Amino acid sequence: MRLTIRTNLAMRCLMFCAVNNDRIVRKHDIANLCNASENHLAQVVNTLAQQGFIETQRGRSGGMRLARPMDQIGVGEVLRAFEATLPFAECFDPEANTCPLSEACLFRDALSVAIEAFYRAMDDWTIGDLVRDNAALDRLLALPGGRGLPICGRGEARMPPPEPRVAEPRIPAPDARVS
């Protein structure tokens, strides 16, 4: 199984918006940081907005942000929005199916079970699960000047890691015994 580029870009876009949840983000910033074409990303953004995953704002200070909290956007829901209309194999498309085995073949049934199991597994994940407490992703996607993500839902902003401490040599205390 392989996800389409559009689905992959949709997930990148949603994770970008979640990491930068305190602001409206621009398509240009997402394209730069996620290695995507702005034209291709525009199509993905349009679908994400139509499906209710993001809100868009036009104009000079326009951009996009998540339409609902990141914990209410299921990964399975996003994948279905982009992948469900595409036939997984030729036999899943009645108009294009030329397979001579389709009337007797059980492979399609096996694939259907596997695909549904995949989506059910993805239903257990949310965008919040993918970005929360993910410092590496935060470093890659956070725009300068942002507040960062809340830690464990407590509303505290992520702070950069503290500078490593340099151990100072310990001087042994003088012996208190008097001889």
From TrEMBL:
<dbReference type="Pfam" id="PF02082">
    <property type="entry name" value="Rrf2"/>
</dbReference>
<dbReference type="GO" id="GO:0003700">
    <property type="term" value="F:DNA-binding transcription factor activity"/>
</dbReference>
<protein>
    <submittedName>
        <fullName>Rrf2 family transcriptional regulator</fullName>
    </submittedName>
</protein>
<dbReference type="InterPro" id="IPR000944">
    <property type="entry name" value="Tscrpt_reg_Rrf2"/>
</dbReference>
<keyword id="KW-0238">DNA-binding</keyword>
<dbReference type="GO" id="GO:0005829">
    <property type="term" value="C:cytosol"/>
</dbReference>
<dbReference type="InterPro" id="IPR036390">
    <property type="entry name" value="WH_DNA-bd_sf"/>
</dbReference>
<dbReference type="GO" id="GO:0003677">
    <property type="term" value="F:DNA binding"/>
</dbReference>
<dbReference type="InterPro" id="IPR036388">
    <property type="entry name" value="WH-like_DNA-bd_sf"/>
</dbReference>
<feature type="region of interest" description="Disordered">
    <location>
        <begin position="154"/>
        <end position="179"/>
    </location>
</feature>
